[in-house]
Please model this.
Amino acid sequence: MTLQGSQRRGFRRRMLQAGAAGGQETPPADPQPRPDRGTPYSQEARPENHPAFATRLPSRPLHLWAACLGVILPIAAVIAAAATVDRWLPPPDAAGRWAHSVERIRECVAVEARTGLAAWMGQCSLVAAAAIAAAIRQMRRYRLDDYQGRYRAWGWLAALAVVATLERQMPLSELVAATIANASGIVLGPGGSGWWLCLAVPLCLAAGLWAVLPMHERLAAGLALVATGLAWLAASGCGWLGQGDVLGPVRLVSGCLTLAGDGLFVVAMLLAAGSVLREVRGEAAKPARQAKDEPRRTAAVEPQEAVLPADPAEGVTAWSDGSELDDEDGDAWDENGTRKLSKAERKRLRKLGRMNRAA
Model:
């Protein structure tokens, strides 16, 4: 064994011994600091590195709830106006020369039609939800521990929102239902519209769960998504019942529930965006179980503080002459601290120490 090899031997043990003796040294800094060890995102995930739309998403609770109210209140006003139109607007027969204007106002506030104020607000809500979901996807894709690629679920939600906007402007659901009904010979629901639900419900459920569950603050966004799904399902059920002109109030309820679901979808995306932004900036509250296990995991992962003596020669001499092996028990350990050294190995270490001092 050469002299250089003897100096390298036990290097880690000398560092630990020097640290236990009172040496202090700051561990090397992380070359790429992370905002939060619980939610490891790279620096590219910060909204400043994305288009300006991501930087305008609210993350503080006050701004976030103000944005949610800004979405809910106009939709609630339109629903209330459509539900009470007969109370504040006279019938066309009693309007006289204003009968034509009254009829046009009724068409504007109607929620069961494909055109009108309610349809426009629903379209805007779905487009906004798709844009927010796409922005969340761009930030979530830089999460370092997302080994299963769950960030893609936000892209699926954005795509589903775009498909919903197309369905509002064209009979896409009727086309899909008729195609499947003609191919299978089974008509599910009125006009085969049940096939559209059989395709849409599993996709929305899978994408929603896959997107929301990995978040730390997922309760509010998850409840909003559940409310969105229930509103759309109830609207579809009312639509089945209101196929005829006799059940006009049922169709009104269906239109109101559809518009309410669109608004709740935007609220869910806003809440999810705020949660992701706080995770990226290290401000998100960790789950109780993860917060409990964090000190144990940190103590197991982070290295012990250690430092070499100021004089390297002093440290090498102290360990190469075998003086640390002359303890009362006669026990000595290898450089990894896992195996006791034999008597012959301790004798060889003393010999190497004498050679080192002579050199």
